[in-house]
Design goal:
- By secondary structure, the protein is of the alpha/beta class.
- The chain is globular, with a radius of gyration of 16 Å.
- It has a 5-stranded parallel beta sheet, sandwiched between helices.
- The protein has helices spanning 16-27, 34-41, 58-71, 99-108, 113-124, 127-135, 149-170; strands at residues 6-9, 30-33, 44-48, 53-56, 74-77, 91-96, 141-145.
Length: 171
């Protein structure tokens, strides 16, 4: 049975991991958090002193995921999306969060200074939505609000309906 691949992207702190894990559980799909995958496999090409974080080796991440993605049924969670092959995803969801809510979430994670401000600006200027629209067919890219528990439930319901319809149409 064919199963869709789903990309969940957005600025850090918008709720990608919460949504992705719960969606995988409800839909019976596998879940990949690219940050965790990179940490476990040491898929880095250096360290960014300014942002105090490792630099992802995107080519190695793609190599690591290629077989799983070709099988289908994978939910991928990452804050960037322009390096994944377009052929991998059947649908892309960009989570969006109001700035005051996002600020509080990032601050509670220990984000400060330039790292905090740059992530807030990224959300204000819709950087990841624009990246998704430039990287994938516009008709498969969708923005979803991610501010409240009610948004989370609505998003889960909406994506589950899409997955169920995709599976009917493609099997």
């Amino acid at each position: 049975m064919r199963r869709p691949n789903v990309l969940i992207t957005g600025t850090p702190g918008v709720g990608k991991t919460t949504l992705g894990k719960e969606l995988a559980s409800r839909a019976g799909l596998s879940y990949v958090n690219v940050g965790d995958l990179a940490r476990e496999g040491e898929l880095y090409e250096g360290f960014d002193e300014e942002y105090n974080c490792p630099i992802l080796d995107e080519d190695r991440v793609v190599d690591e995921l290629e077989d799983r993605m070709s099988e289908g049924g994978v939910i991928v969670d990452y804050h960037g999306c322009d390096f994944f092959p377009e052929r991998w995803f059947h649908i892309v969801f960009v989570l969006r969060t109001e700035n005051s809510c996002l600020y509080d979430r990032l601050e509670s994670r220990g984000y400060t200074g330039k790292k905090l401000q740059d992530n807030i600006q990224c959300e204000i200027f819709q950087t990841l939505y624009e990246e998704a629209v430039l990287s994938y067919r516009k008709e498969i890219v969708h923005q979803l609000p991610s501010n409240t528990p009610e948004d989370l439930e609505r998003n889960l319901d909406q994506i589950m309906q899409w997955i169920e319809q995709w599976m009917k149409d493609n099997n």
